[in-house]
Amino acid sequence: TLAVNGGITQVSNFNQKIRFGDQQANGIRQSLNYQAIYQRSLLRAQRDLASRFEQAGSLYFIHTPLGGDYRGSLLAASTRFAFPGLARHHSLQLRGNYQRQNIDNYIFGSPLRFPRGYTYRTNDTFYSFTTQYAMPIWYPDLALGPFLYFQRLKGNIFYDYGQSEYRNQVTPYRSVGLELSTDFNFMRLNFLLDAGVRISYLPQTKKRVIELIVTQIGI
Length: 219
Fold this sequence. Notes:
By secondary structure, the protein is mainly beta.
């Protein structure tokens, strides 16, 4: 899949005393972005957490070649591989990400996920690797009146590693943890939601980070 998009944003009457790097003040920002996506996978059973064999990759680039008051660019690439796990419907998943950003007077938002347990930090270059093992735990098929219908409880064990460089300062990131979540429908709507909790341990700082996770995973 290939896509090209452009955008023009104009802001006036901006009166804040401080402007963050990813925030547009008065003026015009003109940008073009390009995206290429590749995915190859086998058909999956309804209870599979991922395709038994999957290869996917994406390339994303955004810049400001048309002039305007704001200048910058960002290049991001990601890959994902999935393999069968030790038991039926289990999945072993590997991910890799790379990003390079040219910061002039504007910082574009990153399409990549930072290592879990950390908040995103501005960087000139960034790369990361992820290993995770996902498994179904229970299929309750439980309805709570007309409001909630729980289909599946699942777990995910992960290890994330990343490293960023900003103004010649290198920062490593490491986290290991567990996610416990459930797939459910709300108010008998067709789309499926995934909600749960994530517990990350950061070995470098010996901190534990607990986060709530809510995503839409399909119809």
